[in-house]
Amino acid sequence: MKVSELIEILQKFDESAEVHLAHGSGDYWRTTLAPKVSQVFNGAVQMSDYHRCDKLIHDEDVPEDDEAEPVRQVVVIE
Asked: Which ranges in the chain belong to alpha helices (H)?
């Protein structure tokens, strides 16, 4: 999803509504957790083969391996 698409969707909601981010807990009951969004920031992600999705990259985690998955700059909602 692009930032422009998110803005368009959010404009349809009440501006005073809280924002939460839903994700699976990974527990036995397949509970969906929905913690309140605490911050939005620019970040870097890289595909994790182990997790089969993007992972957040910190400066010290940037790989120097030419064969590593590319690091991409994104907007992170946490």
From this structure: 3-10
